[in-house]
Specification:
The chain is an alpha/beta fold and 352 residues long. The chain contains twelve helices and 17 strands. The protein has two domains: 257 residues, Aldolase class I (TIM Barrel), CATH 3.20.20.70; 89 residues, no CATH class. The strands form two sheets. It has an eleven-stranded mixed sheet with strand order 1-2-11-10-9-8-7-6-3-4-5. The mean pLDDT is 93.
Length: 352
């Protein structure tokens, strides 16, 4: 058992999907929130849980073009198809696999998460033919009823893994599952369980966070490390993926990559991948834009009207230097620090 540089633990080599993930090189494609299962530990947020919605990273998707745009913005070398269960919308899933492979090439690595509930010979054959590289199965930890269906998955040449949460109080059930699948796997991923605000967790077992600043569940890490140590010589690759890895490494690194590609000429990029920009609020934004362009000969590429948030974007230097004049014209100057995501989530807004 070995600690990784990514706040996680492993034995053996990380699966290809994980190797790209920890570098921020994986597009997370949420195909649908629909799922035949009702797991009480489901980590999906309320805005996605049991809803037929599509997201590329944090971006709600309306068309294929937006998926490709997000992949380009983060410099993706692969994608993880998740849900819900992508097999609940199989044709959509197939279409997106082919789209990404066609646009970025056969080496663009795609892995997919699914349960055994919807798996059958026809669906799996379609996934394999479309070019799926790696399949990660989430069997029911508390029922072995469908476990025998796993045999269908092993018929195809792709990397095969089991990915399950480490659920406190479910050690015996998890050991039974691992021992059943151990000799059939290329890898086993154990995820640190996190508390989520959705119907499943509200109605099911209530978990306790391990501390005040984390959504990770108390006892999950201890179980994961116990299982990793116990089975490290029976499965060639085991990875315990922590909540910190997902938040600080996967998300954090991806945001830094997106910031480098999404930044505009007026943006400054922080070491953490945040965008610092000047902001002017008010009505008739074209008026103040044209005034500043004409009077101060500022290059036009340093101005952009953000119609969605009804503001004028420019450099922090412009609003700092001209704050008094901007205010005198009836506008509100500010410096905004934001995530480089599609929704430009604010971290801090300082009015001048």
């Amino acid at each position: 058992m070995q600690k990784t540089p990514y706040y996680s633990w492993k034995s053996g080599k990380l699966p290809k999907g994980c190797q790209l993930c920890v570098k921020g090189e994986k597009l997370v494609l949420f195909v649908t929130g629909l799922c035949p299962r009702n797991c009480f530990y489901c980590p999906i947020s309320e805005k996605k849980y049991k809803k037929d919605v599509i997201y590329a990273d944090e971006w709600p998707i309306k068309n294929e073009k937006e998926i490709l745009e997000e992949a380009k913005l983060i410099g993706a070398k692969g994608a993880g198809f998740t849900g819900g269960d992508p097999l609940a919308r199989l044709e959509r899933t197939i279409k997106y696999i082919k789209l990404l492979k066609k646009h970025f090439g056969k080496k663009f690595h795609i892995h997919l998460y699914t349960s055994l509930d919807l798996a059958d010979e026809i669906k799996l054959k379609k996934l394999h033919s479309a070019g799926l590289d790696e399949i990660r199965v989430h069997p029911d930890i508390f029922s072995d009823k469908l476990w025998k269906k796993f045999g269908i998955i092993t018929k195809y040449k792709w990397d095969i893994g089991i990915e399950i949460p480490a659920i406190p109080g479910a050690m015996k059930q998890t050991e039974k599952l691992i021992e059943y699948f151990a000799d059939k796997l290329d890898f086993l991923n154990l995820n640190e369980l996190e508390i989520a605000d959705n119907e499943a967790q509200r109605m099911g077992k209530r978990f306790r966070a391990k501390n005040r600043v984390s959504y990770a569940v108390k006892g999950s890490e201890a179980l994961a490390k116990y299982l990793l140590k116990k089975y490290q010589n029976k499965i060639k690759s085991i990875h315990y993926c922590t909540a910190k890895l997902k938040d600080k490494v996967q998300l954090g690194t991806r945001i830094k990559r997106r910031a480098r590609n999404a930044k505009k000429p007026y943006d400054l990029v922080t070491k953490g991948g945040l965008l610092v920009r000047g902001v002017i609020y008010g009505n008739k934004l074209e008026k103040i834009k044209n005034y500043l362009l004409k009077k101060y000969k500022i290059p036009k590429e340093l101005f952009e009207i953000d119609k969605g948030k009804k503001r004028l974007l420019t450099t922090a230097a412009v609003v700092e230097r001209l704050r008094a004049e901007i205010r005198a014209k009836g506008f509100k100057p500010a410096i905004a620090t934001e995530y480089p995501t599609w929704d430009r989530l604010p971290v801090d807004i300082e009015f001048l």
